[in-house]
Amino acid sequence: MPPAPPVPTVADIPREGMNIRTMDWHGDIRSAHVQARNTGDGPTNLYYRRRHESGASDPWEVVPLAPGESYRVILAKSSRDELGPESAMSPQVTSNLHEVFDRAHFPTLAIDEIGVSARDIAPLPLFPGSDMKWARLRPPCPPPPKRTRMTARPASGRRARRPRSG
Questions:
Q1: Of 68-77, 99-108, 109-118, 149-158, where does the model show the most confidence?
Q2: pLDDT by residue (tens digit) across 6-15?
Q3: Measured between alpha carbons, how far is 26 from 23 in angstroms, rounded to an integer?
Q4: How high is the pLDDT of residue 129?
Q5: Which carries the bigger pLDDT value, residue 72 or residue 133?
Q6: Is the predicted pLDDT of residue 85 greater than 90, yes or no?
Q7: 39 with 92: CB under 8 angstroms?
Q8: How many whole angstroms separate alpha carbon 42 and alpha carbon 44?
Q9: For residues 45 and 69, what is the distance between their CA atoms, to the nearest angstrom?
Q10: Residue 13 CB-density burial (10 A; 0-12 exposed, 13-18 middle, 19+ buried)
């Protein structure tokens, strides 16, 4: 598969009439999901970029949206001096911004619904058996079944194939 073409960027955007939203990284929240849908009758653009402590910002990345088209992007903190993402869209674009602990976490509630998270520390992983209380309450797991090896092969020297179901 050939590499995807680079996302187009611009140094500045038309700000008049745009909805501009920012989010700051905090605690263990170092990723954001942006969902956007063009509800208008004409094409428009979604813009997003990274903001840095120095006051500098990356160029705006441009995502063209056709009428009725939706788009989702995952932004993750990429450097220590990064403050967080900024997105901009016209009023005809509806959007949700979700803060998440990492890129694998699928958000369910938008910041607009619940506000900025007050719990921004990811729970430590718990490993089975590490908590002695649970180890006493759970019955031991049965051993895994023994594997058998196929010793006989067809005359062709290859393994026999399973018939296809269909």
A1: 68-77
A2: 889 999 999 9
A3: 9
A4: 43
A5: 72
A6: yes
A7: yes
A8: 7
A9: 11
A10: middle
Higher pLDDT, 136 or 74: 74
CA distance 46 to 75: 14
Task: Give yes or no for a contact between 38 and 65, defined as CB atoms under 8 angstroms apart.
Answer: yes
Structure tokens at 154: 């067809």
Give yes or no for a contact between 33 and 74, defined as CB atoms under 8 angstroms apart: yes
Query: Which has more confidence, 143 or 59?
Result: 59
Helix (H), strand (E), coil (C) string for the chain: CCCCCCCCEECCCCCCCCEEEECCCECCECEEEEEEEECCCCCEEEEEEEEECCCCECCEEEEEECCCCEEEEEEECCCCCEEEEEEEECCCEEEEEEEECCCCCCCCCCHHHHCCCCCCCCCCCCCCCCCHHHHHHCCCCCCCCCCCCCCCCCCCCCCCCCCCCC
